[in-house]
Amino acid sequence: MATHGIGVRSEVGRLRTVMLHRPGPELSRLTPRNNDALLFDGIPWVERAQAEHDGFAGALRSRGVEVLYLSELLAQALALPDARAQVIEQTASDLRLGDILRGWLTEWLGALEPDRLARVLMAGLRNDEVEAPGLVTALLAAHDFLIDPLPNLLFTRDSSVWVGDRVMITSLAMQARRRETQLTELIYQFHPRFTGVERIHGWQREHLEGGDVLALCDGVLAVGVGERTTPAGAERLAHTVFGLGLAHTVLAVPIDQDRATMHLDTICTMVDVDAILMYPNVAHRLSAYPVRPGANGRLWIGPREHFLDVAAAAMGIERLRLIDTGLDPVTAEREQWDDGNNTLCVAPKVAIAYERNEVTNARLGEAGIEVVPIAGSELGSGRGGPRCMSCPISRDPL
Ligand SMILES: NC(=[NH2+])NCCC[C@H](N)C(=O)O
């Protein structure tokens, strides 16, 4: 495909193409013993999670959005020998494997059909699912993983993010998610649909996750700095986008180092060209450092100020309207936890949101935002809403 029309310059421009991941066998790997390490707060009912996800994809399609599935792009990319060789080498390089198992796995993976290989890369591989030789497999328990599963692939937001017409491969902070970006990098590198698209950042760089990056408008990015994106990740982002002329301002937004606020998009998302939905319990204290290109390739860093003020100034608008999600702090806290603030715009003033967050959604309605509700009781157990579960690839310019 020609790269014409590809790219993202806002959070709200009409959404044309999005990448999702329909949850699959990787979710069946979750147990009460590993769910914390794998960043899920419960054990989802897989079939229901899939049905909910189909509802999400259906809502997008009904609004004219083209839905691409990560698993399909991956399997298609894996038809190419170079792509297979690259990912097999990366997967087998895990030091826990040791040489014997590494050699065996390299050969075993190399013999798989693209679909099956994609499935193993996503769902992982248990010791008792193969008969591999060596002391390592003998000493590991039957249910130990030789290749770890990736249940958080569901959250396609985090492992790549489009900035203008380039795609940034992120670098995930949590051990359980690191390998995800090998897969997204592979898709963008090898899938014919993305031929000619320039990749930036890279999965081995400073930590930076897509859930922390918000395109407030063309030329202005906000980046949350907290549990996932490090200060160095934010600095690298600023240098990179300024160097390529993709933005004139980056707002570095310190957020609490907490699971509840793991990404900037768990506390706020844009719902219109000049409106932002925000968790009220932080709205009054959210601040940001404006960062711009400085002299001699350095960064100019302005004073830390209230987020809404710095954002409006950078965006060149008088005011960034705040929609806050309920005055009662307990209700607000409950709905924030269930990703009430994590909405996905399919167009200005039209946001997909989890139906369960009734108070938040009512506020949105009162503020003139059309809410497209989706079910998420099972999907939500991974702590992510419609924005987390989507990677926009193409939005119309505003
Ligand atoms: N953009 C987001 N808010 N993503 C949510 C990711 C949730 C996932 N379980 C994690 O902990 O990484």
UniProtKB/TrEMBL annotation:
The alphabetical list of record keywords is:
Arginine metabolism, Cytoplasm, Hydrolase
According to its UniProt record, this protein's enzyme class is hydrolase
Kindly indicate whether the keyword Disulfide bond belongs to this entry: no
Q: InterPro entries given for it?
A: Arg_deiminase
Say which domain of life the source belongs to.
Answer: Bacteria
Residues of the active site are: C388 (amidino-cysteine intermediate)
Subcellular location(s) of the protein: Cytoplasm
Which reaction equations make up its catalytic activity? L-arginine + H2O = L-citrulline + NH4(+)
- Quote the PANTHER family the UniProt record gives: ARGININE DEIMINASE
Family statement: Belongs to the arginine deiminase family.
Write down what this protein is called: Arginine deiminase
The record lists the organism as Microlunatus ginsengisoli
The organism's taxonomic lineage, starting at the top? Bacteria, Bacillati, Actinomycetota, Actinomycetes, Propionibacteriales
